[in-house]
Amino acid sequence: MEKILEEVLNSNRKYTNYGQVAGYIPELKKAKRDDLGICVIDKDNNIYKAGNWDTKFTIQSVSKIVVLAMALMDNDWQYVFSKVGKEPSGDPFNSIMKLETNDTKKPSNPMINAGAIVTTSLIKGASLEEKEERMLKFFRKLAKNDNLGINYDVYKSEKMTGDRNRAMAYLLRNDGFIQGDVEELLDLYFKQCSIEVDTLDLARIGVNLASYGVDIETGERIIDEKVSRIVKTFMVTCGMYDASGEFAIKVGIPAKSGVGGGILASVPNTMGIGVYGPALDKKGNSIAGIKILEELSQKLELNIF
Ligand SMILES: NC(=O)CC[C@H](N)C(=O)O
């Protein structure tokens, strides 16, 4: 398997020359565009790695699936979906437009920034500190990595420049989709996006989702089974933003991307995959990452459809 991963990386290395490393969060510009890595963990807990599999990057929007799982386990689902929708938006991840033009003004889904700000607001905790602690604990458990932590340079960079998210959050509060202190909520959102991971962490979260929320090593249930299904369904319909349809056709695997350059893919009952390549297309998805997943899906016949 490692040989296959090496081959797939090498045949797609050329794509690291296309696209751009994210620049709207200044700190992200420091990523090296030719870094490329992958990790696969199968359901028997075999771990396969290639390339820059252990390069650290921030999880960014991949965090949205973990926080959605948490929000659904912390709250009544009906309540959650009264605050955030279930439909693809067809707009970029940071679009504000439908918060005005949607009939209900409700954010379309939890995979775009507006919807993710809502799910973050649904994390339970008596104080900001407690919410942050619970959130980190959940990420660490799912990734089986007690060393997961926040990259404070990226966090500060996002906080300084996150006015679009700030604008969305104030609109969301005005329309009754979130409550309380907006700055505190954004603090938590920026922190969740700034959690530092490598492809092994993404693959581990992916395989735990692939096994319907049961830790494949210990047998412990981490995510409610139905919640794990909802999360993977959102990954298929909205995980690659307004490129989710094309990705579903070409790759056919539930996946979630982030502007840090990571993609987490979860093949039900089979494996979790983490890929990293920081140069992004215009929609904010890793170009080489998508190409790698496309080839791997064909080679290993992973298409779930
Ligand atoms: N697509 C992403 O990864 C976006 C996450 C980023 N932290 C933002 O809010 O803009």
**What is the H level of CATH, i.e. the homologous superfamily of the largest domain?**
DD-peptidase/beta-lactamase superfamily
What shape does the CA trace take? Answer: globular
What top-tier CATH class of the largest domain fits best? Alpha Beta
Helix-strand string:
HEEEEHHHHHEHHHEHHHEEEEH
- How many β-strands, per DSSP? 10
Named CATH architecture of the largest domain:
3-Layer(aba) Sandwich
- Please tell me the total number of domains: 2
Structural Rg: 18 Å
Mean pLDDT over the full residue set:
96
Query: Uncertain spans, ≥5 residues at pLDDT below 50?
Result: none
Query: What is the helix content?
Result: 40-55%
Briefly note the CATH topology name of the largest domain: Beta-lactamase
Q: What distance lies between the first and last C-alpha atoms, to the nearest angstrom?
A: 23 Å
Beta-strand content bin:
5-15%
Helix count, per DSSP? 13
Provide the spatial order of strands within the biggest beta sheet.
3-2-9-8-7
Ligands: glutamine
Tell me about the largest β-sheet.
5 strands, antiparallel
Query: Based on helices, strands and strand pairing, what is the structural class?
Result: alpha+beta
Family: Belongs to the glutaminase family.
Keywords: Acetylation, Hydrolase
Organism: Romboutsia hominis
Pfam family, one: Glutaminase
Give a quick set of tags describing it.
hydrolase; 305 residues; Beta-lactamase; three-stranded antiparallel sheet; 2 domains; five-stranded antiparallel sheet; alpha+beta
